[in-house]
């Protein structure tokens, strides 16, 4: 009886996924929505039956995706890999009743691998080096801008042009940071939607805890400090320096979240409306990068000095 239920659930999961994948492939721009929905069938199946059965289902779906990639649509494999990894990791965490933030971290890993695979596959199939193409586009844009300003009598020094070029090319160095930041956002939305689906279908009570409870371990501070020190003594043009730059930026994002979380905690302790920290965050976004650095500094102080525990003790 149990095997029949698993088989029925597996077939249902596969059909729902195929339907979502077909919508993604056939309807232009639908991927902006279905990207968050594709992992949910695997979240539902894994959260109910565990990792072993989910790996069997995921392996079968991936084999089908490889065949479709070879003969039909090349984007089938990366989308499927992203959905299977993300859905299985989130579902596994839910199955074992892990904390919501740990589940979020596992989901981020799955999305990151999927996005990297998508990037690599696009380059491999198209036989185009996207990074080289971007560098060429930057050079052409600078030359065009220089010609336009020259025709209007505006002179631009070579130093200014080099600075502008470096700023545009910085995007390439920060590509890993951007991919992980995107993965964090995609995993969060997917997990939130999965909670809603599972609560509706399975009469559960899954939810993210209040954001004011978000807290990083103190080890993050040490990693951040070590990365900053390494950046002082590394060659700015080396691959090591690029890696260090991305590490500091990724941890910086997490510390910014920590700072925002502390704002919500502080105003909650003071029994002040949630609208106040929300407005502060909005103004912080508007006045970037000042708002970003202020919340990051607040996050560093909160993690390093345990401000929340101090506030609880003095309350």
Automatic annotation (TrEMBL):
The chain crosses the membrane at residues 12-40, 60-92, 104-125, 174-195, 216-234, 246-268, 275-301. InterPro entries: DUF2232. Keywords: Membrane, Transmembrane, Transmembrane helix. This is Uncharacterized protein YybS (DUF2232 family).
């Amino acid at each position: 009886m149990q095997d029949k239920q698993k088989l029925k659930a597996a077939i249902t999961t596969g059909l729902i996924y195929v339907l979502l994948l077909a919508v993604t492939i056939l309807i232009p721009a639908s991927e902006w929505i279905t990207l968050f929905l594709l992992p949910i069938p695997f979240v539902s199946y894994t959260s109910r039956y565990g990792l072993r059965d989910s790996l069997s289902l995921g392996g079968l779906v991936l084999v089908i995706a490889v065949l479709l990639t070879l003969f039909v649509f090349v984007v089938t494999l990366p989308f499927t890999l992203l959905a299977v990894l993300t859905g299985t990791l989130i579902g596994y965490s839910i199955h074992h009743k892990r904390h919501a933030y740990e589940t979020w971290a596992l989901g981020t890993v799955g999305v990151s691998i999927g996005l990297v695979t998508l990037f690599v596959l696009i380059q491999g199939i198209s036989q185009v080096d996207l990074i080289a193409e971007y560098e060429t586009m930057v050079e052409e844009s600078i030359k065009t801008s220089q010609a336009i300003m020259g025709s209007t009598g505006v002179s631009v020094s070579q130093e200014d042009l080099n600075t502008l070029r470096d700023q545009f090319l910085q995007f390439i160095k920060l590509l890993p940071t951007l991919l992980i930041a995107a993965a964090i956002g995609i995993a969060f939305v997917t997990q939130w939607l999965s909670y809603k689906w599972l609560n509706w279908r399975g009469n559960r009570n899954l939810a993210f805890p209040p954001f004011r409870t978000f807290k990083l371990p103190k080890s993050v501070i040490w990693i951040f400090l070590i990365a900053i020190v390494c950046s002082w003594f590394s060659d700015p043009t080396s691959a090591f320096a690029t890696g260090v730059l991305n590490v500091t930026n990724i941890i910086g994002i997490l510390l910014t979240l920590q700072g925002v979380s502390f704002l919500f905690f502080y105003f909650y302790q003071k029994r002040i409306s949630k609208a106040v920290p929300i407005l502060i965050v909005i103004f912080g976004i508007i006045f970037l990068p000042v708002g970003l650095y202020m919340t990051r500094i607040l996050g560093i102080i909160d993690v390093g000095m345990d401000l929340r525990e101090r506030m609880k003790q003095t309350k």
